[in-house]
Amino acid sequence: KQEVTQIPAALSVPEGENLVLNCSFTDSAIYNLQWFRQDPGKGLTSLLLIQSSQREQTSGRLNASLDKSSGRSTLYIAASQPGDSATYLCAVQGGSEKLVFGKGTKLTVNP
Amino acid sequence: SQTIHQWPATLVQPVGSPLSLECTVEGTSNPNLYWYRQAAGRGLQLLFYSVGIGQISSEVPQNLSASRPQDRQFILSSKKLLLSDSGFYLCAWSNTGTSRYEQYFGPGTRLTVT
After folding, report:
1. Given this model, what pLDDT does residue B98 score?
2. Searching chain A, which residue's CA lies closest to the CA of residue B44?
3. Which of A84, A98, A104, B62 is the most exposed place for a label (fewest CB within 10 A)?
4. Closest-CA residue of chain A to B46
5. pLDDT tens-digit profile of A65-106?
6. Between B28 and A83, where is the model more confident?
7. Residue A24 in contact with residue A15, Cβ under 8 Å?
8. Which chain B residues are within 8 Å of A101, Cβ to Cβ?
9. Would you give the DSSP letter of residue B102?
10. What is the pLDDT of residue B40?
11. Helix (H/G/I), strand (E/B), else coil: A72
12. How far is CA A67 from the centre of its chain?
């Protein structure tokens, strides 16, 4: 059974800092890994999707890496801003339609 | 561009009452559709998914059911709500034909069962 863990559960940083969010999964047989952002009381916004054959994806100040063999992914946020404050969720997709989610990392960027 | 709608945005229902949540997608045809639930302190859990009209797969045994009466409409229902049904319900869609595409989520429905 696939399990996804995100560490830390919460993170508070000053504005301008570079930061890394971690995601690990137990079954390396995945099709893709997706990072989402969730603002309080809102739905999920897709940030980046990494196919199993890829090592990383970049979008603006965000960079996500994938090491499938070790079951790990990281989301790197450069030059963090208060507007980046949200919960970040990692999800993996295996051999079915099912996305398995971690519980998220709640990020607070302080001005 | 594609958009996904959910309603209602919030709902407060007594235990034992029925439930109907609706999700519609615009700007795409024959999408895969999904219902997830996000309970307090827990991760998102897939409840149902559909790869076509009338085709529903259930992931978790519960007192909920789903239906897809039209290509871009997905409905989550219950005949009698339980307290444990409280949570944030999210609908999502992805391109059809493969499971390897991104899933896109709607704004969600906050359900409180009292």
Report:
1. 54
2. A101
3. B62
4. A98
5. 999 999 999 999 999 999 999 999 999 988 777 789 999 999
6. A83
7. no
8. 43-45
9. P
10. 80
11. strand
12. 13
The structure tokens listed for B82 are 């339980």
pLDDT tops 70 at residue B29: yes
Whose CA is closest to B106, among B23, B11, B20?
Answer: B23
> CA-nearest residue of chain A to B94?
A97
Q: Rounded CA gap, A69 and A47, in Å?
A: 23
State whether residue A9 is helix, strand or coil: coil
- The beta-carbon neighbor of B43 closest among A42, A98, A102 is A102
A32–chain B nearest CA distance, Å: 6
- The alpha carbon of residue B43 is apart from the nearest alpha carbon of chain A, in Å, by 4
Long-range contacts of A83-88 (CB under 8 A, 24+ apart): A83/A109, A84/A109, A85/A109, A86/A37, A86/A38, A86/A39, A86/A40, A87/A37, A87/A38, A87/A39, A87/A40, A88/A6, A88/A21, A88/A35, A88/A36, A88/A37, A88/A38, A88/A47
DSSP B28-81: -SS-EEEEEEE-TTS-EEEEEEEEETTEEEESS-SSEEEEEEETTEEEEEESS-
Q: Which two three-digit tokens encode residue B37?
A: 């639930």
CA distance A37 to A43: 9
Residue position matching structure tokens 């219950």 = B78
Cα(B63)–Cα(B84) distance, integer angstroms: 10
